[in-house]
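Quick one:
INPUT:
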C-alpha cells in the first residue's frame, strides 16, 4: 500500500438433475412413487433456475469471534471511528477531514485474520477499504504485508478488490491479483479472511478460497515470515483507485462508512523484536490443523469457478512486467487461456445493473460493459 501510518499503543453431494423426456415423465406419473419423483424434479429445476453455482456449496467456518477491545485499538482518526454499544462491531468513516483505521493490539507469528465487512454505498469512486496484515511500523524497509483492498467505483459500476503479497520489502515485486464479486458488498455483510501459515497463504471470501499461495524455497525472503499486526482502514486513494485516478472521491456523498463485525484473530501473539521466540509451536499446530487451513475438493471447485469467472488480472500471467513467472506461480491452462500477456483478460467482463421502473417511452439501452 502507498499509505503508511505509525503504530499506536497497543452435505451432501448434490443429486444430478436433468430434464426428463416425455416418455420418462409419463413413467414417473404412472409409477407408485411418481409424486416423490415429480417433487424431486420440481426442486431440482428450482435449484438450477435460482442461480446454482459451486460457490453456494461452501460450508461456513466455525469461528470464535472477539469484541473490538479484545483485539484492536485505534490506528488513526479516533473521531471517525464509531463503535457499537456492545463492542461487537465498528464503523470506519471517511469524510473531508480524514479517513480512519484500526490495528490489532498484538503482533502475530502467523495467524488467521477475519471480519465480516459491509462496504460504503452510492458513489464510491476513489475510496479504498483495506483489511490487511503488515509490520511496516517495525520493519520500514523490509516489511511484510498481505492485502485485501476494496476499490470503489462510480455509481452503477461494482466494487472491485485486489489481493497482494509483499515479503521482506518486495514492493517492486508485488504479487497482485484483481477481481469482481458475485454480490453487492455494500448491501450486506460478507466474511473476508486471510490465512497466513508457515507454508501457505489463503485468501477467503465467505469461506471460498479465492487465492492460494504455497511457499516455495525459491521465494526466499519474498514469503512473509516476520510477525505482523492486523489492520483495517478506509482512505482517499483518488490518485489511483478508480480508472487510474480519473474518478476522484466525491465528498458530496460523505460520510463513507465501512462496517466491520464478527472479528477473528487466531494465532500466536509475540514480541516482534524477539526473533528467537519458540513459544508458538502449539499455537501454530492448532492453526494449521484448523478447517480453514485445508482446502477441500468442494472448495477447490468453488475456487476454480470464482477465478475463471471473476478474476480480471493476475501477475502470474503478466509477461510484460515479469517475463519469467514467479516461483510460486502455478500456471493453470483454463486460467491462462483467459488472459493476454499483460495479465489482463482477453475479453471484457460484464455485469448487470438493476433495472428501475420508468415512465414514458422505453429509453435506449445503456452500455453495461464494465471497463477496468
Amino acid at each position: 500500500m502507498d499509505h503508511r501510518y505509525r503504530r499506536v499503543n497497543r452435505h451432501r453431494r448434490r443429486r444430478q438433475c436433468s430434464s426428463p423426456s416425455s416418455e420418462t415423465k409419463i413413467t414417473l406419473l404412472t409409477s407408485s412413487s411418481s409424486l416423490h419423483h415429480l417433487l424431486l424434479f420440481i426442486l431440482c429445476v428450482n435449484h438450477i433456475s435460482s442461480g446454482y453455482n459451486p460457490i453456494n456449496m461452501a460450508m461456513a467456518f466455525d469461528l470464535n469471534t472477539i469484541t473490538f477491545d479484545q483485539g484492536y485499538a485505534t490506528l488513526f482518526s479516533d473521531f471517525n471511528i464509531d463503535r457499537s454499544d456492545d463492542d461487537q462491531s465498528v464503523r470506519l468513516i471517511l469524510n473531508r477531514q480524514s479517513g480512519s483505521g484500526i490495528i490489532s493490539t498484538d503482533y502475530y507469528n502467523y495467524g488467521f485474520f477475519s471480519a465480516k465487512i459491509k462496504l460504503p454505498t452510492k458513489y464510491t469512486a476513489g475510496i479504498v477499504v483495506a483489511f490487511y496484515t503488515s509490520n511496516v511500523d517495525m520493519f520500514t524497509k523490509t516489511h511484510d504485508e498481505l492485502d485485501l483492498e476494496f476499490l470503489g467505483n462510480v455509481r452503477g459500476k461494482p466494487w472491485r478488490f485486489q489481493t497482494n503479497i509483499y515479503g521482506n520489502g518486495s514492493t517492486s515485486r508485488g504479487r497482485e491479483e484483481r477481481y469482481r464479486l458475485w454480490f453487492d458488498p455494500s448491501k450486506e455483510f460478507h466474511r473476508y479472511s486471510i490465512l497466513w501459515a508457515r507454508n501457505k497463504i489463503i485468501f477467503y471470501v465467505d469461506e471460498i478460497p479465492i487465492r492460494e499461495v504455497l511457499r516455495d524455497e525459491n521465494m526466499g525472503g519474498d514469503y512473509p515470515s516476520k510477525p505482523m499486526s492486523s489492520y483495517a482502514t478506509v482512505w482517499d486513494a483518488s490518485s489511483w483507485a478508480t480508472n487510474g485516478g480519473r474518478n476522484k472521491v466525491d465528498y458530496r456523498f460523505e460520510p463513507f462508512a465501512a462496517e466491520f463485525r464478527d472479528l477473528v484473530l487466531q494465532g500466536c501473539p509475540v514480541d516482534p523484536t524477539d526473533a528467537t521466540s519458540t513459544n508458538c509451536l502449539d499455537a501454530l499446530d492448532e492453526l494449521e490443523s484448523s478447517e480453514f487451513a485445508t482446502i477441500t475438493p468442494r472448495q477447490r471447485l468453488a475456487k476454480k469457478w470464482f477465478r475463471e469467472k471473476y478474476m480480471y488480472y493476475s501477475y502470474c500471467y503478466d509477461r510484460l512486467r515479469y517475463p519469467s513467472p514467479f516461483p510460486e506461480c502455478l500456471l493453470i491452462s483454463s486460467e491462462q487461456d483467459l488472459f493476454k500477456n499483460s495479465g489482463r483478460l482477453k475479453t471484457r467482463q460484464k455485469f448487470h445493473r438493476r433495472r428501475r421502473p420508468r415512465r414514458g417511452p422505453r429509453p435506449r439501452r445503456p452500455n453495461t460493459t464494465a471497463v477496468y
